[in-house]
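EI: anyone free to look at a 305-residue chain?
SC: sure, send it
EI:
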Amino acid sequence: MRPSFVMAWWLVLGTIGWAWAQSPTWYDRQHEPPAGAVLAAGAPGEPAPGTVEVFRKGNLELTLVYVPSGWFPMGTTPKAPEFQRLAAQSGLKEGEVEDETPQRHVWVSGFWIGKAEVTNAQFAQFVRATGHRTYYDDSRWGSWRSEWMANGDSYPVVDVTVEDAQAFCDWCGCRLPSEAQWEYAARGPEGRAYPWGNEWDPAKVTRNSMYPVGCLRADRSWCGALDMAANVAEWCRDAYEERFYASPRAGNRDPECRDPKPAMRVIRGGCWHGEAGGCRAAGRMPYPVVVGADIDVGFRVVRAR
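SC: here you go
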């Protein structure tokens, strides 16, 4: 056999192998946890799920709950019976969850997360301490201050951009959650559709307006985090890429979509006017970085263990 013929065959086989490695079947296999690991949460020496810690920065107090390390199914499988049942309840179409596919098992290292969203009073402490001015402070459309005056101290701060939220986190020594951290805290190792379980229940979230953080105790996740299905949607630190889950860059251990200058970042969770489809724990939405602020978008913090 001539050497050139051998080289040609190696090139063909290499190309076939590369294409197979990029296929969804291979990708799914690479994103499966070890046998028996899916429902495991926590490692030796870790606090139990929902352990409460009060984090302090000067006069600022943030109540955090612990989320132990573990595997969970991140994203959505549109053909799965559980999604089809949910779609029948909510009117969701398969095409509307394309950016949540493919579902894959992800390992998340243990961390602390805000029991509820950051409040107006907490954000005001940051502003007083630093002199920070938000993007909309001088806008005729209003800002977080107008919402603060209208609603009060215990409501979630809104009308803040992701840069405002990150500035708060930098000041107090926290971070915004990654998408994986947020979804794991909301769904748990079993991959619930909603923080409380797999069945939609509007009574657990419906108030017809924004409300003080944590007052709807039924909107509670497996680790004790509140308001993850409703009240306000929340900033995450990931850049938004529609097909990130399908990319080998996503990985399956503490995944995060990093981009130093993204046009869009991700917001997670439903809000006070949300419906069954929008309040799902797997749902994700792009939001502009520069001018992205709204009266139904806030944030919560995370801290490493």
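EI: Residues 5-9, 11-31 have pLDDT under 50 and may be disordered.
SC: 👍
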